Amino acid sequence: MDHHQSLIINNRSELPKAKRIIWDIVTLLLWVGFIYLWKPVFHVFYRILTLDAPGHEFADWIFEEIHSVTFINAMYLLIGTPLILFVLARLNRHHAPTEHLIFHFDDYAEYFKVEKESLQECVNSQLVTVYFDDHGHIINLEDRIVEKKK
Amino acid sequence: MNLDSVSHLTWHIILGYIFYYPLFMSSLWIIGAIFFYFKNEKPYLTHLIPELRPNEKWEGVSILIPCYNEGQNAVETISYALNVEYPEFEVIAINDGSKDDTLEILMSIAKTNPRLKVVNLAENQGKALALHAGSLVAKYDYLIGIDGDALIDKYCVYWMMKHFIRYPAVAAVTGNPRIRNRTTLLGKIQVGEFSSIVGMIKRAQRSFGRIFTVSGVITGFRKSAVHEVGYWSPDMLTEDIDITWKLQSNGWDVHFEPRSLVWILMPETISGLWKQRLRWSMGGAQVMLKNFKVLFAPRQTHLWGLMVELILSTVWAYSMLLVILVWIASLFVPVSYLMPQQSPILPDDTSIILISACLLQFFVSKWLDGHYDKGLGKNYFWMIWYPFAYWIINLFTAVTSLPKVLFGTKGRARWVSPDRGAHQQVKKG
Question: pTM for this one?
């Protein structure tokens, strides 16, 4: 998929240097700020790592914390909802009426109220002009291009 | 329970809803998208084109390209469409009363390309009616609509047609739009957004049921299905959302095909982005109001999930607005228990969970769409902006759109000349 690379338009080098540097720095600061917001979590990890206690006590403590009611409910919700949606999506099938699956050329001409011969000429022509009325209904077709005077 | 405690409880429910709803939806999208990948994408990763079964054959396709003032993009768009790999197809460029030289350009290309048909609308009519005209004079029973500034991938048609040929109940197949212009910060953020929000949600929605909307920029249609539901609605701001609901409420299926790529241009200015997002949001609100009745129709239960999600998202946007307003008020006057502990806008130690969920979503979507858009990971550095800046834009467009749809003037949706990125603005200057 290397040809995709040629489709990408990235003229960043043409932007003013000051603008580029400012956006780079602000974006970097946002990342730093975001990581800084994790400080309380890092602090807890640090305390666990530096606490002088047997490993199984940590494990018990973490296990107790994780088994809070909220966490279990969240997990039920996260597993249960997709499962219910999967099942419903497969049970819940409202099919298109099969007798209407196929329409033909005459049906299209009739729907748009255009003459079949005129429509057939336009289908076969390379150049077509279509006229609409003020209500958005097709009123005429021509198998040539009619340019509006500018 | 007295009035005070009811108000207190309601306020805490609102605060909880604001926090948990996006977290829950993000998790749901990630799970659904990963399921979709293993079921529908992984088996085909090494295929350039899909293989047909013994009783199947490739059917002819008409590629419809509505153009309004596309003089700058027409040559490139039409050339890509004419060069797709597919046994039998025609390209129909519909000039919708352009004010520039689009028609002259299309006619000059047609002289040397018999596969190109030029349809001229005597007056500007809007995209929906341009598609009506193209569909009417199309030679084939399968239509693929792309925008006038979009570049279709060489093998896109094969991947789309696989669905129509194999599954008779499929009325539309929406493709995978990839953003070309990645010069500015806005462009780079949208690259991530189109994978993380657009692509991931479509994957998840297909896993769990139905799709909220096809992407108007690249969608294939079964002509008979579109005819059955009365074609594209000219009075809807987003004809793509509307046709998706019309087809699905009539029992038709809509699929997502991530290998049907199209390369598109997106706004790279704040005002261009605001206009585009407001239109999308207003289109969503229009469809919500028009289709609200599905919740009371037993035959439409397959659309209940989509409608509930749409309503919940709207409620979320207004809840968020309420909390922001209360926070601003609390800066000037005491507001009792409503006083937020922290700003709902400025990040704090609880919102890191939401930001992390957003970044995780970007990471998963980078992995999913990285199969088709190499080098996607380079944009990850800029994704930190999404939860900080983009959420605000999307929140305010969501809040603004509903009253505009409810109380605004109604009429035919017409074209507006969109912002197509910094590179075209530079050229114009």
Answer: 0.89
What is the count of residue pairs from A and B with beta carbons less than 8 Å apart? 186
Q: Give residue-wise pLDDT tens across range A75-115.
A: 787 888 888 888 877 776 666 665 556 788 999 999 999 99
Ranges of residues in chain B whose predicted pLDDT is under 50: 426-429
Tell me if A130 and B348 make a contact (CB, 8 A cut-off): no
Chain A contacts of B177, Cβ < 8 Å?
none
Any idea how long chain B is?
429
| Alpha-carbon Rg for chain B in angstroms | 22
Cβ within 8 Å of B, A 86-105: 86, 88-89, 92-97, 100-103
> What span, in angstroms and rounded, lies between the C-alpha atoms of B241 and B260?
19
Look-up: residue for tokens 């000219």?
Answer: B234
CB–CB of B65/B81 below 8 Å?
yes
Cβ distance of A8 and B252 shorter than 8 Å: no
**What span, in angstroms and rounded, lies between the C-alpha atoms of B147 and B195?**
19
- Separation in Å, CA B59 to CA B39, B52, B165, B222, B277: 25, 12, 8, 11, 36
Q: In which element (H, E) is residue B221 found?
A: strand B218-222
Q: Measuring CA to CA, which residue among A41, A78, A45, A37 is closest to residue B387?
A: A37
What pLDDT, in 10s, does the model give residues A37-73?
Answer: 888 778 777 877 777 667 777 677 766 666 555 677 7
ipTM of the complex: 0.83
- Looking at residue B242, its pLDDT comes to 96
Smallest Cα–Cα separation from B294: which of B281, B282, B284, B307?
B307
Taking only the tens place, the pLDDT of each residue in A121-150 is: 999 999 999 999 988 999 999 998 877 655
C-alpha B395/C-alpha B397 separation (Å) is: 6
* Residue of A10, A131, A139 to mutate, testing the B interface (most B Cβ within 10 Å of its Cβ): A10
Distance between CA B425 and CA B421 in Å, rounded?
7
Residue B122 contacts A where some CB pair is shorter than 8 Å: yes
Pair type for strands B218-222 and B170-179 = antiparallel
In this predicted model, what pLDDT tens digit does every residue of A97-108 receive, in sequence order? 655 567 889 999
Identify the burial level of B332 via C-beta atoms within 10 angstroms of its C-beta, where 0-12 means exposed, 13-18 middle and 19 or more buried: exposed
Could you say which of B183, B234, B347 has the minimum Cβ distance to residue A15? B183
Work out the average pLDDT over A1-18.
Answer: 79
**Start-to-end CA span in chain B (Å):** 66
* DSSP code at position A99: G
- Alpha carbons B174 and B241: distance in angstroms, whole number: 11
Question: Contact at 8 Å (CB) between B171 and B251?
Answer: no
pLDDT of residue B338: 62
List all residues of chain B from 230 to 259 with a beta carbon under 8 Å from chain A: 234, 250-253
